[in-house]
Input
Amino acid sequence: MFTELAVRNVRRQIGNYLIYFITVALTVSLMFAVNNIIFNEQILAYAETMKELKSGMIGISVFLSLIVAFVLSYATSFMLRLRKREFGMYLTLGMTRKNILLLFNLETLIMGAAALGLGLLLGLFFYQGLMLIMTHLLDMDFAFAAYSAQGLILTIVLVTAVFLISSAVSARYLKKVSIFHLLHGDRMVERNVRRPGIWMILTVASFVTLTVSFLFFQEQIRASLLRDVTPGSGLFVSLMVFAAALILFHISLARSIVNLLLKNRRFCSSGTNTFTLRQLSGKLRSNSVIVGILSFLIAFAVIGSNVSFVMKVSERLALDREYPFDINANLDASVETSVGPDQAEEIISQYAGIEEVIPYTFYTTGASELHQYTRWSGASYEGLHDSLMAESDFNLLLNRLGREPVRLDGSFLICANSNVPQAAHSNFQDAALSLGGKTYRYQGMISDLPMFYYTYFFAVVPDEAVHGLTVESNCVAFRLKDADYDPQELRSALSYSYTSKYEDHTYERCDYKLKEYGRLQKNSTTAIFVIGALYIAVVFIFMAMAILALKTLSGITEDRKRYAVLYRLGAGEREQCQTLFRQTFGFFFLPFALPLLLSIPTSMVSAEIMTIAGFAGQAWEIYRNAGLIAAAILLIYLLYFTATYLIEKRNVVQSKG
Output
């Protein structure tokens, strides 16, 4: 009997269950897609660091499942409250609370099973889409990915846990609620906002605080990049102030904006604007805290997803800077290596064809004349000394990179480390080098070259200037004919056991930096961050939109009564639809607009960071990614807004028919 009644109720309540159904289906599809990536053998075999992806992403899935459980528990509570009168009638007719709970759980089980089925079906496509993103992040060739039984099982286990938690919340509610509250609990008591002027002052003050904290955060980032100033606690405090100001801004705005508009007589005298504002007044006042929290969640999703793509772009560009050639080695002349250049060449040739071997040398005077013109001088930097390279070696490297040679003509150049922006901002105008009885003056600086040597900067001097100087490092670069080799195996072959005389322990050491190995490691780390950030961001957006939708629909009973009065006052069906659209849009728009607009300053700060780091030419990628993220979030917003509006329209708008 209960099964038949549950099926009938689901059919009858299908409109009210739509938001629940959409949220569960989309969340399940995303869970299924991510869980399949977690157990994808091709991905896990790609790099050792992807093993961290497995445990990390499982942890994220479990964490997000708890958030989903909280929101869906709220959704089930909403649906219980929406049907208070119906359940109250069941109790008066002799049904027990256990019977009602069983009936309700059967209904949610039917909807949950249907949503699970649809979610898994959508997940089949979402998974291939995520695999396309993942393979792009890892620079792998995309191919149709096989599905994982382990991913399916994990998804079903997590969804079952979510269902059990939401059922427990329903049981707790039905156990405590009284029959009187079930029958009469839908009567709303409207309360006007107290002291709206103070709330408006708080709105302005919180917006100013929001702006100031953002500018302070931006300045902290700029100082850390340009002046190598450690941000310390100021960076964290500015973020906390920004988050608090964002929440307070939306709370105070929700409590003041309607009162401000109600004072505009011209606006209120037009059509049903006064009715719309009074409808919004009650919703915004009672839900102001929720509006503030949801704005924070949406802002977190916007900023987090943007930052993840900034990391991807910067890591890709930094790879070419850190690895000028396929394989590089800076062999410290004071440290004996077990794998010399000749032996390394023999080992490398077993894995890949060698096109060219480029040896070059760094020298030192043991002094730190040039460091005195930088921030790396004085106390704590006594161990640093100037490094020098001969003009002929430098021009050879430039030639292999397709760059024009330099002509020193009795002067010297500074080559700043492109990964250290502070080096390029050092002033060497008054610097001079005395070498071999001759003085060389500063000619200029180059700051856009890849890392030939692991130091803040080095000087390029005429060949005769290095005669008699101490060799600091014997370097060698290998240009390979192709990159089709196993970088992990080659790196292992170039490694040897090394015992540190300072730390007195043995570890595997490799003096050769492989660009392909570095790319693999950077890509795998970035992939974890990007996929994790996108996963969290999308789930947060789903949950925020679901709560907004359910909060909107919670007032259907009162809205129906008020729109009936509006209909009797002469408002036609079209005018009611327009009024309801404005009412629904106003409630949805308030916590959504500012967080989405944060895409603009976030992308601007990100582009500035890229410019400071020397990647100004690629800043357009940051703006493109920000636009795509904003478009995706807007699409989810429109989906939930449209579904909510159509449900309200079906239940609220009065017509002659």
User: Anything to note?
Assistant: The mean pLDDT is 80. The CA atoms of residues 351 and 485 lie 6 Å apart. Residues 1-187 form one domain. The first strand starts at residue 327 and ends at 332.
